Amino acid sequence: MIKYKVFFLIIVNILLIGVLTLFFFFQYNKQIVYIDNVKLFDGFVMTKEMKRAGEKEFNSRKSVLDKLYSDLQSSSISASERKQLMQQFIQGKEELEQFNQVFGSEQSLKIWARIKSYTTEFSRDKNYKLVIGSDNKQTVLFADEKIDVTNELLTYINKRYEGL
C-alpha cells in the first residue's frame, strides 16, 4: 500500500512539474505575437509625413482647379475661352483623381516596405519566430492581449525611422 502511495506521489509530482514547465514556457517564451496593422500603419511617423506631403500636393493642384472653375463662372470670357478653360478643368480634374490613386498606393507600398524591414529587425531583437498582422483583429479570431506588441513595435519603428 505504501509503495502505491509513493508511486502515486511520484507520478503526481512529475505531472505537476510538466504542467508548470509548460505554463512557464508559454508564459515567458512569447515567440508568436501579433500586431494591429491599422494602428501600426496610422501611428508610423513616415505615414504621417507622407500624408502631409500628399495633402500639400493635393491642395496645390486643387487650388489650380478652383481658379479654373472660378474663371469658368466669369461672364466676361468668350465662348472659345470658356471651351479652352473647360478642357483644362476636365484634364486637371482627371489628373487630380489619378494623382490621388497613384500617390496613395505608391506611398503605401513604400511605407509597408519600411515597416516590414523594421519589423524584421524588431523580431530578431526580441527572438520572435512569428509576427501576425491583423486589421483591427479581423483576421485573428482570438489573441491574448499579452501577445499584442503593436505599441512596442510602433515605438521601435518610429525610433528607427527617426534615426534613434
From TrEMBL:
MF annotations from Gene Ontology: unfolded protein binding
Family annotation (Pfam families): OmpH
UniProt-listed Gene3D superfamilies: Skp domain
Domain of life according to the entry: Bacteria
Record bears the keyword Membrane: yes
Keyword line: Membrane, Transmembrane, Transmembrane helix
TM ranges: 6-26
The protein's name in its UniProt record: Molecular chaperone Skp
